């Protein structure tokens, strides 16, 4: 629990069934003012259903949702202090950028001076001043995404909901928009909740991550905790790459133990010479993959086990080639025990 922030959104015993299918199972979760939360999980895990229940687009089968102690469970989306940015953006193509962004305020019959002031403020925030009078159908995907974000932010929601907002963008633009989302969140100090299946996006954007699988939140914490201290085999494999070995493989004193240990690829050292680590194996390089800033090694060790090892290009050893005999190893502090 975050003691420095006040509770904003409280989800209590929330479930959702679609016929015989249970999409969300008895979720209890609390979001605090100023949080940037990622709901992370594979396709079909229930994350978008949960987000839509927070936004009022789907009603829970059971349980309650509160914002600032107000029960909003049965309120429609237009009555909630939330706003949602959908994956498809949903812009009006015949309207300009400025008209799209101001639309919600016009519907609320806000006076023209305030509409102009707030619209210009948000347009500057998302860096669209030069495109304010352009129709949205003439914008790039990244620009359209900014308009959708601005249209939601101008309503000053207590909670901004984002449903995989960057999924349609190419990799370079997606990274640029991640930077923009972080900047905007820091600048306005709002509360953002976004859904993604991309673990790298969750790690780079969110200060809290809720990992979902089969309708349940199975682990919650900051990125470092989720990555370095996964509580289950599913979380360890879903968040980043892993090497999984039987515990008895590295600790010979343990008998009839079905537990496993997990080591991240970047935690494993590799050398043609001796290495100073708690665990050391001899191995042979099967493959070397050059991935720009990183090098990936695939190494065979005893009992037909294979280790994937990741190093930065700065650590590349020209003497290590395919079929080279090497020493590989890691320290006990770098391995994770999973039942």
Structure overview:
With 339 residues, the chain is α+β, with helices and mostly antiparallel strands. It has two domains: 7-230, Rossmann fold (3-Layer(aba) Sandwich); 243-338, OB fold (Dihydrolipoamide Acetyltransferase, E2P), CATH 2.40.50. The protein is 26% helix and 33% strand. It is built from nine helices and 18 strands. The protein has helices at 47-55, 97-107, 112-125, 141-153, 171-188, 199-205, 223-228, 233-238, 247-250, and strands at 7-18, 21-32, 36-40, 62-67, 70-71, 82-85, 159-163, 192-196, 208-213, 216-221, 243-246, 260-263, 269-271, 279-291, 294-300, 306-312, 325-330, 335-338. The strands form four sheets. The chain has a six-stranded mixed sheet with strand order 6-7-8-3-9-10, sandwiched between helices. Strand 7 (159-163), helix 5 and strand 8 (192-196) form a beta-alpha-beta unit. Helix 2 (97-107) packs across helix 3 (112-125). The longest helix is centred in the middle third of the chain and has 18 residues, at 171-188. The mean pLDDT is 89.
List keywords for this structure.
single chain; 339 residues; alpha+beta; Rossmann fold; OB fold (Dihydrolipoamide Acetyltransferase, E2P); six-stranded mixed β-sheet; five-stranded antiparallel β-sheet; 9 helices; 26% helix; 33% strand; globular
The second-level CATH architecture of the largest domain is 3-Layer(aba) Sandwich
Strand order of the largest sheet: 6-7-8-3-9-10
Rg for CA atoms? 24 Å
> Helix- and strand-based class?
alpha+beta
| Global shape | globular
Total helical segments: 9
H and E order: EEEHEEEHHHEHEHEEHHEHEEEEEEE
């Amino acid at each position: 629990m975050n003691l420095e922030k006040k509770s904003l959104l409280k989800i209590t015993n929330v479930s959702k069934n679609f016929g015989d299918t249970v999409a969300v199972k008895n979720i209890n979760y609390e979001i605090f003012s100023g949080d940037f939360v990622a709901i992370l999980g594979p396709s079909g895990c229930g994350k978008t259903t949960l987000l839509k229940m927070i936004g009022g687009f789907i009603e829970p089968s059971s349980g309650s949702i509160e914002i600032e102690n107000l029960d909003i469970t049965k309120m429609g989306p237009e009555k909630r202090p939330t706003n949602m940015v959908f994956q498809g953006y949903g812009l009006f193509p015949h309207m300009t950028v400025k008209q799209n962004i101001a639309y919600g305020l016009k519907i609320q019959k806000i006076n023209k001076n305030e509409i102009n002031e707030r619209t210009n403020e948000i347009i500057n925030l998302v860096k669209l001043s030069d495109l304010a009078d352009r129709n949205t159908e003439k914008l790039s995907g990244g620009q359209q995404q900014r308009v959708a974000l601005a249209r939601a932010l101008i309503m000053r929601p207590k909670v901004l909901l984002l449903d995989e907002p960057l999924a349609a963008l190419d990799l370079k633009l997606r990274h640029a928009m991640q930077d923009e989302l972080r900047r905007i969140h820091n600048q306005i100090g709002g509360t953002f909740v976004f859904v993604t299946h991309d673990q790298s996006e969750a790690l780079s954007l969110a200060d809290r991550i809720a990992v979902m699988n089969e309708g349940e939140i199975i682990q919650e914490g900051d990125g470092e905790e989720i990555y370095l201290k996964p509580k289950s085999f599913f979380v360890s494999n879903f968040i980043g790459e892993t090497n999984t070995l039987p515990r008895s493989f590295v600790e010979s004193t343990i008998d009839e133990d079905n537990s496993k240990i997990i080591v991240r690829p970047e935690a494993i050292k590799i050398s043609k010479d001796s290495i100073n680590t708690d665990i050391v194996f001899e191995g042979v390089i099967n493959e070397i993959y050059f991935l720009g800033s990183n090098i990936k090694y695939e190494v065979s060790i005893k009992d037909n086990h294979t280790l994937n090892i990741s190093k930065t290009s700065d650590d590349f050893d020209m003497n290590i080639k395919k079929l080279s005999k090497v020493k590989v190893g890691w320290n006990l502090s770098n391995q994770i025990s999973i039942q």
